[in-house]
Amino acid sequence: VLVDPDSGYIIDPASEERTEAGYILIKGDLRPIVAANTLQMVCLGLSRTSAFFEYPALVFVMISKMRATTAFLATTPFSMFMFEELHDLHVYCGTTIVYGGIIHTIAHLLRWADQGNMFHLLFTDRSGISGAFIIASCILICFPMMFWKTIRFELRKFTHYLFYIFVIALCFHAPASAVPNGGFAPYVFSILLLWTMLDSLYVYIYMTEKIETTVFNVLPTGIQLTMDVSDRFRKSGEQGGYCYVCFPWIDKNQWHAFSLFENPVNPRQRQIFMQKTGDWTTAVHESLTRNTNRPIWVQGPFPSPYSNSIEYDNQLLVASGIGITPALSVIRRAHQEGARRPNLVWMVRDPHMLEFFMQESYLESGRGWTLVYYTGKQPFVANENMENQNSNICVIHGRPELESVIPAIIQGIETGKGLPEQHGPSKKQQAVVELAEELVRLEMKSGELSSQEKIAHLTRHARKLGFLFTDLVSALEDVLVDEHRHRSNLVVDDGNACMGAIDEEAATVATTASSQDASVCRIYRQDSILKQLPSTASRLSSRDLMKGSKKKNKYAPPTEKDLTTGLLKKRTDPLFTPWESQEGSSEFVKQMPEIEKERWGILYCGGAKILESKLAHIAEDLDLDFHTESFAW
Predict the structure, then answer these.
(1) Lesser CB count within 10 Å: N end or C end of the chain?
(2) Mean pLDDT over residues 431-443, rounded?
């Protein structure tokens, strides 16, 4: 840049005519960067500063949306250094570009106007013409997403295709000779444009699949889609992630993103859940009022912020509404591995969605707390099948006090006083109980069935419960040994009546010598079916097999099967309830060693910004990692 040694202004000393026209000849190129007074120097300084501030944002705003590239990098060691919330990065960069671009443009126009060259340079110079295309396309891309949200989303998203005009104009905005003042733009932005186009082409050709057989489960407020996917898709989406879906019979040009989760019944299948919210999802819902086998197209899968869950041994998964879907993959994977503890706190007001996910056992985690806060106005009543299938699920009416719930869960698990598996029986434990109850019923028919017939019946009953009879026998032996230790004062008579001296209630029941009492006593005789089980089975308490009850849990409506028999229920007295305030839990977490805190992570998915801010504050207060996924892909 040529500087007048006397005034310090930027002019072309070789040609006063060029200076008057606003140009300086540098390395064979005419550049409109004359600054002949203090105002023009300030404006030139603002335009250059804003441009240099924009350059990193211009690079990352493109890279953050290269889906094939970022999906590949997520599988490499580079993922350790990548920005996790790529969409947040994209939004930040876009905001930086539009505001920086406005400052850059105004500064140039003020300088040119002060010279009297504004219209001449704006409409005849390469920098002026390209700059007009750049700022116009930038505003049309960014402002609808930032301020004009009443416009249909599809239209706002469509304006993003102006990105190609934006980048092409950038390539011509400054000559290559202008290094370091923008001279690299033609090379850098040409490469990024070509890279973006190749990335999009790769996704469209190699990461897009036609799903010919799709199963739709239509609910009043949404749709569950089950699809068979290729081995490539399945292996790439083991961590869940998201995909784009196109229904050609709705609109061939619209692709919408949804979280993926594995079908718990068939691991080869992937599922998504669409909630009926916008125009497109409503159109899909209405089109499926009749059964259809028409194919759909899916693109993906792509990693999401929820993929960070594998970085933690103990996961606190907080979700609101349809935000439950990415958490399902985390729960399913943890359930298969049996090592991590996925603790779910789900706020939902749609009873149909809640009923669907409970019925299908999607929420069964085994080693983690599953707290469902139902906030809907319509009454929600779960049936007995839901209750039995989801033994670790607590349904609470109302909103959670996350400031107390989150530290309470952590304290309960870290101290061992509130382990989720102690709250209720697992499916296998329930099966053992049902098998024991079935055994009592068979013994009541001892004169009608032989021992071999009883064994055959128990084998079939175990198979109906989803287990092999031999597997349940082994589990039954373990619990019988444990029960015998707790009921060591049992007295068994060799006759046809049993007397349990455990407590007044047991004694009263035993002295009635009912037909059920007699059947239980026959279990202990030498010719009993139990003698064909391990020998410890003969120590079974009469009270344990005679009596069962259901107890309402005010914290988990509807009723949960309360195994007061003591056969299986862990003895956690008093019962740990993380949904209630636990005194000192916050201080406990704050005082945990750093190495223990690193094993915990909070992940949120949903569209509630207030809730997201609250969780971020809680994570900061407790010094825990926090990740968020907002479906804003």
Answers:
(1) N
(2) 73
